[in-house]
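This week, look over our next protein:
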Amino acid sequence: LLIVLADLAHIAGAVRAEDAVMQLALEAYDAYLVLCPTSAALRMRAETLLRLRRYVDAFDAFQNLYSHALRCSEQAMLQAIGPVSVKARMAVPKAPLNDSQLKRQQLDEYPVGHSAARVAELEVS
Protein backbone atom coordinates (compact mmCIF):
# COMPACT_ATOMS: atom_id res chain seq x y z
CA LEU A 1 0.00 0.00 0.00
CA LEU A 2 2.89 2.37 0.59
CA ILE A 3 3.94 2.23 -3.05
CA VAL A 4 0.36 2.94 -4.18
CA LEU A 5 0.18 5.93 -1.82
CA ALA A 6 3.56 7.14 -3.08
CA ASP A 7 2.54 6.83 -6.74
CA LEU A 8 -0.82 8.53 -6.22
CA ALA A 9 0.80 11.35 -4.26
CA HIS A 10 3.42 11.75 -6.99
CA ILE A 11 0.76 12.00 -9.69
CA ALA A 12 -1.42 14.39 -7.68
CA GLY A 13 1.54 16.54 -6.72
CA ALA A 14 2.78 16.69 -10.30
CA VAL A 15 -0.64 17.54 -11.75
CA ARG A 16 -1.32 20.23 -9.15
CA ALA A 17 2.31 21.38 -8.88
CA GLU A 18 2.05 21.11 -5.08
CA ASP A 19 5.33 20.59 -3.31
CA ALA A 20 3.62 19.46 -0.10
CA VAL A 21 1.96 16.54 -1.91
CA MET A 22 5.25 15.72 -3.67
CA GLN A 23 6.94 15.72 -0.25
CA LEU A 24 4.32 13.21 0.94
CA ALA A 25 5.18 11.05 -2.09
CA LEU A 26 8.87 11.26 -1.25
CA GLU A 27 8.22 10.19 2.35
CA ALA A 28 6.10 7.27 1.16
CA TYR A 29 8.81 6.16 -1.29
CA ASP A 30 11.41 6.37 1.48
CA ALA A 31 9.24 4.25 3.80
CA TYR A 32 8.62 1.69 1.03
CA LEU A 33 12.31 1.48 0.12
CA VAL A 34 13.19 0.55 3.69
CA LEU A 35 10.95 -2.50 3.30
CA CYS A 36 11.51 -3.37 -0.36
CA PRO A 37 14.26 -1.63 -2.38
CA THR A 38 13.07 -2.04 -5.96
CA SER A 39 14.40 -0.28 -9.05
CA ALA A 40 10.96 1.13 -9.85
CA ALA A 41 10.61 2.74 -6.43
CA LEU A 42 14.18 4.06 -6.55
CA ARG A 43 13.48 5.62 -9.96
CA MET A 44 10.21 7.23 -8.82
CA ARG A 45 11.93 8.59 -5.71
CA ALA A 46 14.58 10.20 -7.93
CA GLU A 47 11.90 11.66 -10.22
CA THR A 48 10.05 13.03 -7.20
CA LEU A 49 13.23 14.75 -6.04
CA LEU A 50 13.59 16.29 -9.51
CA ARG A 51 10.04 17.69 -9.34
CA LEU A 52 10.86 19.11 -5.91
CA ARG A 53 13.86 20.84 -7.57
CA ARG A 54 16.28 19.05 -5.22
CA TYR A 55 18.70 18.39 -8.05
CA VAL A 56 21.75 17.25 -6.06
CA ASP A 57 19.60 14.79 -4.09
CA ALA A 58 17.91 13.66 -7.31
CA PHE A 59 21.19 12.89 -9.06
CA ASP A 60 22.43 11.08 -5.95
CA ALA A 61 19.22 9.05 -6.07
CA PHE A 62 19.78 8.25 -9.76
CA GLN A 63 23.33 7.15 -8.90
CA ASN A 64 21.87 4.91 -6.18
CA LEU A 65 19.42 3.47 -8.74
CA TYR A 66 22.29 2.81 -11.17
CA SER A 67 24.32 1.04 -8.45
CA HIS A 68 21.28 -1.01 -7.43
CA ALA A 69 20.68 -2.06 -11.05
CA LEU A 70 24.32 -3.12 -11.43
CA ARG A 71 24.19 -5.19 -8.23
CA CYS A 72 20.97 -6.88 -9.36
CA SER A 73 22.32 -7.68 -12.83
CA GLU A 74 25.57 -8.99 -11.34
CA GLN A 75 23.64 -11.26 -8.97
CA ALA A 76 21.46 -12.51 -11.82
CA MET A 77 24.54 -13.21 -13.93
CA LEU A 78 26.20 -15.14 -11.10
CA GLN A 79 23.06 -17.20 -10.59
CA ALA A 80 22.89 -17.96 -14.31
CA ILE A 81 26.46 -19.22 -14.56
CA GLY A 82 26.38 -21.15 -11.31
CA PRO A 83 29.09 -21.60 -8.73
CA VAL A 84 32.73 -21.38 -9.70
CA SER A 85 35.25 -22.75 -7.26
CA VAL A 86 38.33 -20.77 -6.27
CA LYS A 87 40.43 -23.70 -7.42
CA ALA A 88 38.87 -23.54 -10.89
CA ARG A 89 39.36 -19.76 -11.15
CA MET A 90 43.00 -20.01 -10.08
CA ALA A 91 43.88 -23.07 -12.16
CA VAL A 92 46.04 -22.41 -15.18
CA PRO A 93 46.12 -25.45 -17.48
CA LYS A 94 49.55 -26.39 -18.79
CA ALA A 95 48.13 -27.48 -22.12
CA PRO A 96 44.86 -26.57 -23.80
CA LEU A 97 42.01 -28.80 -22.69
CA ASN A 98 39.94 -30.69 -25.22
CA ASP A 99 36.12 -30.50 -25.17
CA SER A 100 35.74 -33.58 -23.00
CA GLN A 101 38.23 -32.28 -20.44
CA LEU A 102 36.54 -28.88 -20.35
CA LYS A 103 33.13 -30.43 -19.76
CA ARG A 104 34.56 -32.67 -17.01
CA GLN A 105 36.10 -29.59 -15.34
CA GLN A 106 32.75 -27.77 -15.50
CA LEU A 107 31.01 -30.81 -14.06
CA ASP A 108 33.38 -30.81 -11.07
CA GLU A 109 32.47 -27.19 -10.24
CA TYR A 110 28.80 -27.92 -9.51
CA PRO A 111 27.44 -29.55 -6.36
CA VAL A 112 25.98 -33.03 -6.68
CA GLY A 113 22.36 -32.86 -7.85
CA HIS A 114 22.65 -29.34 -9.34
CA SER A 115 20.67 -29.15 -12.59
CA ALA A 116 23.64 -27.80 -14.55
CA ALA A 117 25.75 -30.69 -13.22
CA ARG A 118 23.24 -33.20 -14.57
CA VAL A 119 23.29 -31.52 -17.99
CA ALA A 120 27.11 -31.43 -18.02
CA GLU A 121 27.25 -35.08 -16.95
CA LEU A 122 25.01 -36.07 -19.86
CA GLU A 123 27.23 -34.14 -22.26
CA VAL A 124 30.39 -35.79 -20.93
CA SER A 125 29.04 -39.33 -21.12
User: Anything to note?
Assistant: The CA atoms of residues 12 and 79 lie 40 Å apart. The mean pLDDT is 80. The longest helix spans residues 55-81. The radius of gyration is 24 Å.
